[in-house]
Structure to design on (308 residues):
C-alpha cells in the first residue's frame, strides 16, 4: 500500500491504559502580559487579574456586576430595548445582520446593561458597557439606557455609576449615535443639579464619543490599571502629527500623571474603594449603611467586606 494511503494510528486512545489524554479546552488560561499559566477557575476567582503580574484580563459584564453589586440587590432595567436600523445602513454587511450576529454571540440585546442595586449597602443606579456586543459601541439604545441611569438616580435619590468600555459612537447609526453624546451629558447635568454624586469608572478601552462625553464628566473619575483611554487611538494620532508618542501614551498611568483622572484602582479593590468614596461624597443612604460581608460565589475569598 502506498504511504499516502496508509491509515495513521490514532494519537489519542482514551480507552487504553497509558495512552495520551487530551486537556479539556478552557481549563488553563495564559496571561497575555507575563505568560503565566493559571487555572481558569482560579483566574475567575481572582476577578481575572493575573496573580503574578496583576494584568487585568477582559472581564465579562455579568462577572463584573457580580463582583461589585451586593448579592440579591441587583435589578436590571430597560431589558427590552434593542437597536433598529433607522438609516438602512449597509457596508460589507447589513447593519441589521450585524446586530443579529452580535445578539447571538453575546446573548445581549445591546452594548449596555443598566440597573439598580447596592454596593456595600449604598444604593446606586449603575450602568455597565458590554464590550462583547459590537465593541461596546454607543448607538441610540446605549445612549438611552445610559441617560436613564442618571434619570433613575435623580428619581430614586441615589448615586450614579457608569463603567465605560467602548470603541466610541456606532458609525452604522450616523448622526443618531453622535446625538447620544449630548443626550447623556444633559442627563448627567440634571444629576449634578440634583446634588447627587456620579462616579465614572474607565475600563479598557474607553475611547471615541464615550470618552468625549459622560465618561469624563464624573465627580470622580477612576480607571483600571493600563486601560487605554482617549478620543482617537494612538496610531491615528501618531500618523496625523507625524511624531513619536511618549511611552505609555493614553494609558491610565499617563493620564493620572497629567491630571486627567483622579485615581487608578485595581479590580481587586474596586468594590471597597467605590463604597468608601460614595460615603465620602455623601451618597444618599450611605450614612445608614453598615459594611456588609461579601460572600458572592464569583468573588469568594477575594472580598471580605469593607473596613472603612
Amino acid at each position: 500500500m502506498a504511504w499516502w494511503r496508509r491509515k495513521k494510528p490514532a494519537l489519542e486512545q482514551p480507552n487504553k491504559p497509558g495512552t495520551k489524554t487530551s486537556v479539556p479546552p478552557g481549563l488553563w488560561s495564559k496571561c497575555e502580559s507575563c505568560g503565566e499559566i493559571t487555572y481558569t477557575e482560579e483566574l475567575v476567582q481572582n476577578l481575572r487579574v493575573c496573580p503574578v503580574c496583576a494584568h487585568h484580563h477582559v472581564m465579562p459584564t455579568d462577572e463584573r456586576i457580580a463582583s461589585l453589586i451586593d448579592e440579591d440587590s441587583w435589578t436590571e432595567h430597560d431589558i427590552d430595548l434593542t437597536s433598529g436600523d433607522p438609516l438602512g445602513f449597509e457596508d460589507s454587511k447589513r447593519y441589521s445582520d450585524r446586530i443579529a450576529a452580535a445578539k447571538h454571540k453575546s446573548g445581549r440585546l445591546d452594548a449596555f446593561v443598566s440597573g439598580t442595586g447596592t454596593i456595600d449597602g449604598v444604593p446606586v443606579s449603575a450602568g455597565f458597557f458590554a464590550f462583547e456586543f459590537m465593541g461596546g459601541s454607543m448607538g441610540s439604545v446605549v445612549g438611552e439606557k445610559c441617560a436613564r441611569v442618571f434619570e433613575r438616580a435623580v428619581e430614586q435619590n441615589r448615586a450614579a455609576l457608569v463603567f465605560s468600555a467602548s470603541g466610541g459612537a456606532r458609525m452604522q447609526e450616523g448622526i443618531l449615535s453622535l446625538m447620544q453624546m449630548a443626550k447623556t451629558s444633559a442627563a448627567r447635568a440634571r444629576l449634578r443639579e440634583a446634588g447627587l454624586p456620579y462616579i465614572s469608572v474607565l475600563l479598557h478601552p474607553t475611547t471615541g464619543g464615550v470618552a468625549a462625553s459622560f465618561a469624563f464628566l464624573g465627580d470622580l473619575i477612576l480607571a483600571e490599571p493600563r486601560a487605554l483611554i482617549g478620543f482617537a487611538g494612538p496610531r491615528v494620532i501618531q500618523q496625523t502629527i507625524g511624531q513619536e508618542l511618549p511611552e505609555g501614551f493614553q494609558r491610565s498611568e499617563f493620564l493620572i500623571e497629567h491630571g486627567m483622572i483622579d485615581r487608578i484602582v485595581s479590580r481587586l479593590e474596586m468594590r471597597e474603594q467605590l463604597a468608601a468614596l460614595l460615603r465620602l461624597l455623601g451618597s444618599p443612604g450611605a450614612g445608614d449603611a453598615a459594611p456588609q460581608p461579601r460572600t458572592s460565589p464569583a468573588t469568594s475569598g477575594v472580598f471580605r467586606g469593607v473596613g472603612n
